[in-house]
Amino acid sequence: MATFSMRLKELREEKGWSQDELANHLGVQRPTVAGYESKSKSRIPRDKTLMKIAELFNTSTDYLLGRTNNRKYSIVNDKEDMPQKVTEKIIGDLVEKYNLDLTDPTVAEKLEAMIKLVYKDL
Asked: Could you give the number of structural domains in the chain?
């Protein structure tokens, strides 16, 4: 799995930025960026800087930290879509975990009742 130092360097180079340029974007000194990119030092920035790096490169902190190989960062920008997206995720997880058959009317009705219960106050 890739390390933070490898991912940061790769993303910086893809933008064509020097360590100085990245440091300017982050509001840190160039040696700080060099420390982040050094495999031997294994420095990880504090949360605020880590989030700033993720925003700069339009990726997630999980990608930067090597927890996922999915580079894309996606967030639900429209709060109106949030319940729908959460519902889809929950249903997908339940179907997978419990091997639910949504063509069974009883299963579908129970899921619908649970969803209504969860979102009744929203």
From this structure: 2
